[in-house]
Amino acid sequence: MFPSNVRSPRNRWLAIVLLVGCWVLVLPAPGLRADQTSATPPKPQTPAMVQYQKGVTALEEGHLSAAEGYFHASLKLDPKLAAAMLGLADVAVRHKDMTGAGGYLKQALAAQPNNPAVEASWGHFLTVQKQYPQAEAFLKKAVQAHPNDARVNIELANLYMLGLRKPQQAIPFYRQALKIDPNHVRAHYALANALAVTSQYESAVQEMQAAVRLAPHDAVMQQSLGVLYESHREYDKALGAYAQALHDQPSYFPAHVNRGSIFLEQGKPGQALEEFKQATHIAPKDPAGYLGMGQADEATSQPDAAREAYKWAFQADPRFAPAYNNLAWLDAQQKQHLDEALASAQKAVALEPKNANYLDTLAWVQHVRGSNAEALKTLAQAARLNPRNAEVVYHMGVINQEMGNKREAAGAFQKALGLGTGFSEQNDARQRLAQVQSPSGR
What we know:
With 442 residues, this protein is mostly helical. 71% of the residues lie in helices and 2% in strands. The chain contains 24 helices and four strands. The strands form two sheets. It has a two-stranded antiparallel sheet. Strands 3-4 form a two-stranded antiparallel sheet. Strand 1 and strand 2 (12-13) form a beta hairpin. Helix 3 packs antiparallel against helix 4 (82-94). The longest helix has 14 residues, at 47-60. It is elongated. The two termini are 40 Å apart. Mean pLDDT is 89; it is low at 1-30 and 33-40.
């Protein structure tokens, strides 16, 4: 985790590909692999099953052409072997051939229409294709038909959690899956996410701890537990979880990024910088480490190094909006490179037009460049997107004060202070409010 706008650490985004939303962990979606969602196969000694198992092994090793050949050979021996059809669907997905995958899944449904594994795979496919109403209707019927099958319960829960964004509705289906299979790591992990986003922190931690116990050397599980701890500022526990993730998988760069984030939050920019540097060494094409380096450099008053780090970030990923945003804010604060600052801020907004913080940065760049009327329009847009962003309202006050609009400035400062969000400029807002309210104030 680390800020999306370095001027205020409260504006946080999670620099891990596992996260979406506020700090929700993205459930690793099960693929259509035959060994994960296979229909009940014939007895292992059959020739068809021998070919099928060879296909699964080839798939696990990444040999897609070989896997495809084995699955086809299996179907020649047993044309109704749905497991092989699911294997071919998985191969098609890996080739990004979703039409082909859908075709194989339909064949599997025709071959074994009442098989819960096949139904789970089809429901998952509909979810991935964002055909949410169809997926919900199909998976509800599958759960009714197979209430004691963990797979269909998990797929319906995943649909509610990740597709329809209804975590509260996902929880009972994850719980049902765990009642059926208490050792299902993914279900514990997913339930922890659903509990977390419904403000059930203690229960979320318990479920994530269960996932860690079941998979003690899985870096993703340790990392996820650390994110939960970090979200509640239990930094020592979070650092311990991240350290364990790195012990289990030294090349797991997100743990370095999150450790760096905590060190920044704790006012230890030197330690943070080392963590971010390690992240960039492990994953030089990922922008997260460079962004963290820039923030650490800013915290140690090294603006030139910070500018370079931010540029490295969007060179690594030209669509990485936080780097453009932070570079624009840094240049605006330094009152230099203002043409570049404007272009960077505009780029960040173009990439994420509904991000109020990025609009706030753009407005401040416009203000520093002397375009106050334009800046107020941009701030109004940011305020519509996030009416409780005190920093946006505070900046409205500052600009109005400098324009001589005392009444508007006073109203903005009062509103910003009344939001009670603990923004970093609170003291300055109080002083400015006193100034504009005094007879001689500007």
